[in-house]
What does this fold into?
Amino acid sequence: ALRTFRKGLASRKGVVRVPLVAAFLVAGLAVYFIPRLSRETEKTIEARRQAAVSHARTIERLQKRTDATLAAALALRRAGQLGEMVKFWRDSEEACREVIQEVPDRPEAYYELGRMYRAFMEDDHALRLQESALERDPEFAPALYERIVLHARRYRAPLRRPAASPCLSARPRLLRPATR
It folds into this structure.
């Protein structure tokens, strides 16, 4: 069987040479292109790494800035100085909008802006911003927490009725059992 195979190869020398030449051609192209591709890949990886570091620093600066402005705004709200609170809100909103322009796919800026809207008691807008943060990262824990707080406020609001409400000020009626 081996002799028959060798005779078949011997009679087909031209057929054997074509795949052999193609194999050498592919190997030569691989030797030329693979180092080039690896250099480009390394450059791409390094550029992505630098972008990620830059984005992380931007987010860190945003969080420091908004934490300070939110704390000041809440202190002013507790003091009853709502007019002064607006200055801090504008600063925080501007910072968040800048970060959203730079890094639109990260949830942190939407979360921070939503916190500021919640401080201003604009719960619907704050909830929309937390939802936007969760669209970018569904497991972003701070936005999940804020969303829970906002939903709790929304459902608790109808339960708080003013003292002048007829159902709270009127005496309860006693129900008589139905007679047959």
